[in-house]
Hints:
This protein is mainly alpha-helical. The chain is 34% helix and 3% strand.
Amino acid sequence: MSSTMAEISPRYQQVYELVRQIPPGQVATYGQIAELLGWHGQARQVGYALFRVDPDSDIPWHRVINAQGKISQTPQRQGSDALQRLLLMQEAIMFDAQDTIDLRRYRWQPVLRHAPPQESP
C-alpha cells in the first residue's frame, strides 16, 4: 500500500484531502467520496487511491467503507481489513452481527460550502 507523495497523482491527492476531513467516529462510502469530488460513478477510483495509502498514514483511510456499510475484504490488503475494523471500533463505531456499520448513524455528513447568495439588482 505504499507510495511516496512525489509519485501521487493530483486526483489521488484530492481523495486524500477530502478523506482527511472525515472526523473520528464517522465513515464515508467510496461512492460518497467520489460524488463529493464530482467523480460520478467512480467509486473504484477512490478505492484505488486509498489502497495506495500506508496503514500508518495521517490519511484516515479506515473511515471509508463500501455502500453496504461493510469493510471491503480483499487479500491484496495483506491484513489491513482486520486493522480497519479495529481502528473503527477504537473510534466507537459499532458493527452488527453481519459485520455491517449502520450508515444512518455513522455516515459523515459534510457541511458543503455554497457560494453566497447573489443580490438582486
